[in-house]
Structures are given as C-alpha cells and as structure tokens.
Amino acid sequence: MGECKSFCSLILVFLLVACASGEDPYRFFNWNVTYGDIYPLGVKQQGILINGQFPGPQIDSVTNDNLIISVFNSLDEPFLLSWNGIQQRRNSWQDGVYGTNCPIPPGKNFTYVLQVKDQIGSYFYFPSLGIHKAAGGYGGFQIASRSVIPVPFPPPAGDYTILAGDWYKQNHTDLKAILDGGSDLPFPDGLLINGRGSNGYTFNVDQGKTYRFRISNVGLTTSINFRIQGHKMLLVEVEGTHSLQNTYDSLDIHLGQSYSVLVTADQPAQEYYIVVSTRFTSQVLTTTSILHYSNSAGSVSGPPPGGPTTQIDWSLEQARSVRRNLTASGPRPNPQGSYHYGMINTTRTIRLANSAPIINGKQRYAVNGVSFIPADTPLKLADYFKISGIFSLGSVSDGPTGGGGYLQTSVMAADFRGYVEIVFENAEDTVQSWHIDGHSFFVVGMDGGQWSSANRLSYNLRDTISRSTVQVYPNSWTAIYMPLDNVGMWNVRSENWARQYLGQQFYLRVYSPANSWRDEYPIPTNALLCGRALGHSTRPQ
Q1: Is residue 336 a contact partner of residue 325, using CB atoms and an 8 Å limit?
Q2: In angstroms, rounded to a whole number, what is the distance separating the alpha carbons of residues 225 and 285?
Q3: Are 466 and 442 in contact (CB under 8 A)?
Q4: When comparing pLDDT for 205 and 3, which is higher?
Q5: pLDDT at 171 over 60
Q6: How far apart are CA 211 and CA 160, in angstroms?
Q7: Contact 46/75 with Cβ under 8 angstroms?
Q8: How many helices and strands in the chain, by DSSP H and E?
Q9: Which residues contact 238 (CB under 8 A, 6 or more apart)?
Q10: Nearest to residue 378, comparing CAs of 527, 540, 520, 541?
Q11: Contact (Cβ atoms closer than 8 angstroms) between residue 350 and residue 386
Q12: In whole angstroms, how far apart are CA 94 and each of 30, 67, 144, 205?
C-alpha cells in the first residue's frame, strides 16, 4: 500500500512538471545512499556512497530536461542533497538545503523533480546537512546545450569531470564534534582528485585531439590551483556562462566554483602530471593525477610543476580576466551580450560583511553581525504554511552593523524583479567564497581595501562573467549585480563549510504577491514535512 501511495504521488509530480514544461525530455535516476569503507588518503574511513560509488554518479543532462531523482536514504541519520549552481527556476522546493526541505529520514525515500530550465554548463551536487560533505556524497552535474543552439567551440574528443578539493582523514562526525565544541577545523590532511589521492586517477587522451575538462572545487576549506604539466588550458565556460576564450597555464578555483577548459594533447607522447595544490595556505598541499597519451612510450617523470602559492595580486588579476563571450549563445539562441546588465538601474544596495565572533565562548561566523542558527522547521515550509515564530523578515540588515555577533535565524526580504547591487566586504585575512542559490549574478568589480560608492566608477559594466559563486580576497571587496528573477527562499552562504555550518549564511526570501504558477510552482505533493509543519497538507486546497 505504501509503495502504491509513493507511486501515485510520483505520478502526480510528473504530471505537474509535464504541465509546466510541455514536451521537454525526462531523465530518471534511482540512487541509494549508503555508508561504505573508503581509503582516499590510505586510511580507512566511513564514506557516503551513492549507488556504491564515491564520487557519486554523474548527472548528464540537456537544457530544459526534467530530472526525476529518487533518493533512498540507507544511512542511520537524516540526509539531503543540494545542487550547486542549479537555479531551480520557480522551484526552491527542490533546492535540497535545510531552509527549504525537510531531511530524508533514515530508511525513507524522497524524489527530487528538477528542471534544468534555461541553463547550460558545469556544476556538482553535494550533501548539504551537517558536515556530510566531508564524507563524500558529491558528484558531477553537467548540462549540455540543445542541438539547435550553436556552441562557440568544436565538439571535443572527450569530456572529463574533475572533482577536486581538500580532505580530512577524520570522519565527518568527528569534524562536526570539533565545530560543535567551539573550535575551527584543523588544516586538511590532503587533497583529492575524483575521490583519490596522488596518481590515483588517469585521464586517457589521443595525441592531437582536444578534450574538455570540467573542474570543480568540492572541498571544505581551501582554494586550489589547477594545472596540467606542459599543456595550456583554454577557458570556455564558467558556471553556465560561455567565457572569453583566454589561455591559462594554471587556474585558481575557489571553494564551490566550477570551470570548463579545453586542453589539446599537442605534446610528445608520454604521461604528464595533472596538479592540484592549495592556495593562500602557509603549508602547501599538492596532489596529482596522470594525463596519459594513448601512444605513450614513457611514464610520468620528474617533480610535478609548481604553481602560485600565496600571491593574491596574481589571483586578482586572473579573476578580472575572466569575462563573458558576448557573441556566443547561452541556453537560448540569442547572444549572451544581448542582456545589457550594466545599463539597468539597481533598485537596492546590500553590503554583506563576514566576521568571526566568539559567541557564548564558542567560535562562530556571521554576516552583518548575525550568526545563523537553523530553525526547527524549514523556512520555506514555515513561510508557505504561515507558521509564526520560525523566522522574521529583516533579521539581517542591509549593511554591516559594526557590533559583536549574535545568534538568529536570519532571513532577508527581497522583491521579485528587483535588481540589486550586493557588495561582499571581507575585513579578515582569509579568502572568502560566497554562493547564492537560485540565481546567477554579474561580478562587476573586486579590489583591495574598503568599498565605497566611488568604486562603482571602476565596475565592468560591459562583459563581466556571470556565475553563482564568487571569491572575496583578504581585506578586500567584491561587488555583484543580481536580477531577483526567481521567487523562493534562497540560501546565501559561505562555501567554506566550517564557516557555513557555524553561521556564515542566511536566507533571501524573494517574494511575489501574485501567488501565481507563473512566478512559483506550488508545493510538491510529495514534500516531506517535519517540525511545526507536521500535520499540514501538501494537497491543493
């Protein structure tokens, strides 16, 4: 009987999406989430596997596809998956963070119904609760252009996903206990490439052919630099935007960011190092994989090529060189440059300052003085069911307060179809990485020092990149323009997972008074209920 109910609920969800999206194709995924023994740094650990895999299965999709992802939680604790950079148009119900979704209980199933509406590019998914991300559970997520949309480079001979980032030998439960005890995480033990340590992964290429590498930083605490021995990289896409095709010897990739590069196998036939190293750390961690030519006569030799270590100006100049390709088509046939983001008047300026206060004797992190604490009920459900006492709008201000930190379930109100300027201000001596769910934004400026309105004169209002994750250098600022074109409850967070867990996040409630399907989909009939939302109905009234 339970299976019948679940199946019927699923059919209703399918019909809902079919009505909303017409004839766009469906892709179905059945995932079982389990614990399993992994040895990424040579030490046995309890990892989080999806269908027995670490990293998890890759999602390959095409613009506008409907993705039906059935997730069964075989762990002994609640679990959620979120989708870094997937915008969930009109559908924050599927975002998979605790502010929008009840966790999947142990032994239970939840089916995500996503549409990758008007998106292309390279992304990843990850487990969003606690410090699960430190145990794995992440995987690649790519969205190809529709066949009728021109792509600004020839089809590559192969397409490789690289999920790289820092790693700890301690289990996620131990790391969570460190944070809950009021301390920050220690320095990572190593770096992984696709779940493996040094030289644990090989990428095969044919001499003379060109390959696409999609690189994401899925780590917890550190920026990385990526390079391939003896080879140049042609940057072609950044988090769903076709980029100006600049050539780089190495690329800085900050927490949560994704880049696509083309690499031509134009060197003598042998093996070469693929290198990932930490950035802006006193101790430099390095790991390698192998680029193997199919007609190779020799193995990799010599030390891996070095890269930048603590140089901030070098990284800042590289970041400014990452720009959008104005003539290329995005998800739709119109050129990316046809949206003149710099000619639109902003409706509001929001300044967000990160800080590291000690609150009640414990290390916390804050945004404009507010250190986020989760409520007992997901904020999206509380908003929908009009449950009072869960959160209050305006509980985080539009600018730095200058005072000490305090704990609050912080939610900022925003109006649908607004166009905001957001300035991230970092007075700390560490690099910050910020992500905004449900949106893509234009990175109009970044520089050292204190931001002021005079800095607007230096903004790039013509061809900056648009993306969903951006870095802020130490004692520096980064400014973005963002259209508030997606109704919902959206997480704004640090991609440093310790800082996010200890409060450097809040939710942006983008609101439309219309209460119309044109602005936002209704609550899914299979939505899980928890906390004070228990007893409410997800069926249409």
Answers
A1: yes
A2: 11
A3: yes
A4: 205
A5: yes
A6: 8
A7: no
A8: 5, 36
A9: 121, 258, 259, 260, 322, 465, 467
A10: 527
A11: no
A12: 16, 11, 21, 37
Q: Residue written as tokens 């939840």? A: 110
| Distance from C-alpha of 448 to C-alpha of 353, rounded to nearest angstrom | 14
How far apart, in Å, do the first and last CA atoms of the chain sit? 24
Q: DSSP secondary-structure letter at 306? A: P
371: which 2 tokens?
């250190």
Give the closest residue to 511 by CA, choosing from 520, 503, 502. Answer: 520
Q: Is 148 helix (H, G, I), strand (E, B) or coil?
A: coil
Give the sheet arrangement for strand 45-50, strand by strand: 45-50, 26-38, 66-73, 109-115
DSSP 8-state class, residue 458: G
Average pLDDT estimate for 491-497: 98
132 vs 79: CA distance, rounded Å: 8
Q: What is the DSSP string of 233-288?
A: EEEEEETTEEBP--EESEEEE-TT-EEEEEEE--S-SSEEEEEEEEES-SSPPEEE
* DSSP letter assigned to residue 539: S
By three-state DSSP, how is residue 175 classified? Answer: helix
Quote the pLDDT of residue 404. 85
Mode of pairing for the β-strands spanning 348-355 and 250-253: unpaired
Give the C-alpha separation, 281 to 267, whole Å: 32
The band of 515, judged by pLDDT with boundaries at 50, 70 and 90, is confident
Which amino acid appears at position 149 of this protein?
A: I
- Percent of the chain whose pLDDT exceeds 70: 96
CA distance 380 to 102: 10
The band of 239, judged by pLDDT with boundaries at 50, 70 and 90, is very high
Residues 6 or more apart whose Cβ sits within 8 Å of residue 535: 529
Q: Which residues pair with 45 in a beta bridge?
A: 38
pTM over 0.85: yes
- How distant, in Å, are the alpha carbons of 60, 99, 183 from that of 354? 35, 20, 18
Across-strand partners of 424?
352, 478
Three-class HEC string of 375-419? CCCCHHHHHHCCCCCCCEECCCCCCCCCCCCEEECEEEEEECCCE
Cα(378)–Cα(495) distance, rounded to whole angstroms? 20
CB neighbours of residue 313 within 10 Å: 9
Q: Which residues pair with 273 in a beta bridge?
A: 290
SS3 category, 200: coil
CB 350 within 8 A of CB 488: no
CA distances in angstroms from 98 to 81, 188, 276, 505, listed in the order given: 10, 26, 31, 12
| Domains present along the chain, CATH in parentheses | 26-144 (2.60.40.420), 158-324 (2.60.40.420), 348-533 (2.60.40.420)
